[in-house]
Task: structure prediction
Amino acid sequence: MSLDTYPAFPVWMGDIQSRTEAALGRALPAAESIPARLHTAMRYSTLGGGKRVRPLLVFAAGEITGAHPDTLAAAACAVECIHVYSLVHDDMPCMDDDVLRRGRATCHIEFDEPTALLVGDSLQSLAFELLARAPHTEAARQLEMVRLLAHASGSCGMAGGQAIDLASVGKTLSQAELELMHALKTGALIRAAVMLGALAGSALSTAEHDALDRFAKRAGLLFQVVDDILDCTASTATLGKTAGKDAAADKPTYVSLLGLEGAKSFAAALEAEALDCLAGFGDRSRRLLELTAFIAHRQF
Amino acid sequence: MSLDTYPAFPVWMGDIQSRTEAALGRALPAAESIPARLHTAMRYSTLGGGKRVRPLLVFAAGEITGAHPDTLAAAACAVECIHVYSLVHDDMPCMDDDVLRRGRATCHIEFDEPTALLVGDSLQSLAFELLARAPHTEAARQLEMVRLLAHASGSCGMAGGQAIDLASVGKTLSQAELELMHALKTGALIRAAVMLGALAGSALSTAEHDALDRFAKRAGLLFQVVDDILDCTASTATLGKTAGKDAAADKPTYVSLLGLEGAKSFAAALEAEALDCLAGFGDRSRRLLELTAFIAHRQF
Result:
């Protein structure tokens, strides 16, 4: 594709976000199908909001391996279902007890606690069903994608990071401990999004796979550091979720550890390292480069 | 195998239960691995108890298609992880708020609520990881198994049945409504266990598949009817979980709908129907026959 016809990043981003929204809309059971309250709540929590950072990463990484857009849409929906399930469960009273998410009442506030629990549980099941139904890919590849997403979601990935986070409240963590926590809590799923996108297409060489994995780890950490900065600098209205809650909950963050300026310098260094990992991919990694810059400099 | 060397049912059952326990012990992360509290709680909730009815069904159905025992062990662990995750979440204060399970304190009592939430979430992820790693099977078969278990677990299966159950408290349901609820809540996973066991081996003809599926639906319903009978006739000590809690919670059961004798007659009819579905399989279905009788006549 010539540079002239290559859509600008904001156009591409808007297109992927629309595609993801539409694909999720089709993937989720109809609101009126039995049990209607559960299905209504699943759609409420999943549709109509969110930056769709993980789906964007899936599609951007898919450009590297020339993956089919329908395979990428399935992978993007799967990883977003896992992300949304984690938000719904994290917002519950026994966890962060939050009332605002994506500018709206959280699931247990809009519906009720048992429904929120079942929404999260059901979204996780749906994620694996969608991945196992992804079209235009080989069965062995798809199984690898299921293994990757399952491992990234579980006790040695995202849910494990949550557990470390819970145990860390009120404690002073070192940067190494904080990085381990976030490498699991946020990083594992960000990394999975990148690797799922790549797995959806043709095979990478070992060197390429390793370079992409190094990129994905840095991108995950970068996303978290920027989140911590925004949690302390942006308003609740801008974020669409409660601002300043990490500090209020006495949770360790990169800002509490490094100070605001230190956290910003760390983010800049991570961005440079992440971009450096993509050097060998040439123009195929253009969307990932642009997306990394977007993640680093977003204001919400 | 001659009848002389064919182990008696209780011997076979004990063997499968031991194998399942050992396989789960290997599949679960070590208790001391980070995050240790989460992994300890996952092991506490999963190991050392339970009748392992679903793993028994997986292995019994696997005899019909000559499945490899290691494939069956992976499928058995996966379906048991889904079952245990559902118990851990169902016992939480926002759901059934129960303190006793398998003769021990429930997960959120022994640990805490956030840990119980993450234990359930992590066990679900682990289930799909185990299934996607099952050995001695074809990738396309494995994907079919992932789809089957994911669908049976989610909002159109087990979790959906939970949602209907929640909505039914204090209401009078018809037998058709009660059967729909249990077909999802308990039946979907029982059925998945049978079909996963069969999928782990050689292919069934369409007629055989349909006969096994009819069996599996009746076995799932039978299991629930017997559960309702035991909930009203057995003691908490015998059950290892709080007895009489459905009646106390004003939940509709087969006993409340049909009376105790009516429920017993219904169970006997279901048992006969289930056994009838197996007629075409000959000696290959011997374990499923024995297991059905066990499910129908168990005292705990």
Remarks:
- The two ends of chain A are 32 Å apart (CA to CA).
- The mean pLDDT of chain A is 93.
- Chain A is about 70% helix and 0% strand.
- Chain A has one domain: 9-297.
